[in-house]
Amino acid sequence: MDHRTSTRDVVHALRDVDFPAGKEELVQAAKRSGAQQDIVEALRGLPAERYANREEVARSVRPESGSDPGTGPAQRAEQARAGGRPGQSQHLRDVPKPPVEDRLDR
């Protein structure tokens, strides 16, 4: 089965978690809920910290490459240069607008 991990799948697997929760608690909760192995692996890839809610988990989890169609190679490179919260997946970091877009918005 070719299953692609998405942040929606990960958050759904954590529907019964009482927050705040640590990384290991999230992994165990996903296993208890019968989550696919790729979802459990995505949670294992999280930074070891406590998460206040599902939104924090969603911002930190890294979906399978290719599942974020709105981000191209140039945007990913810019995100890597711009940095972000330590441990935060690059596809969720704030990306400044290209100069031409910024100009058009004026």
From TrEMBL:
Residues 51-62, 91-106 have a biased composition (Basic and acidic residues). InterPro entries: DUF2795. Pfam families: DUF2795. Residues 48-106 are annotated as: Disordered. It comes from the Bacteria. Residues 72-83 have a biased composition (Low complexity). This is DUF2795 domain-containing protein.
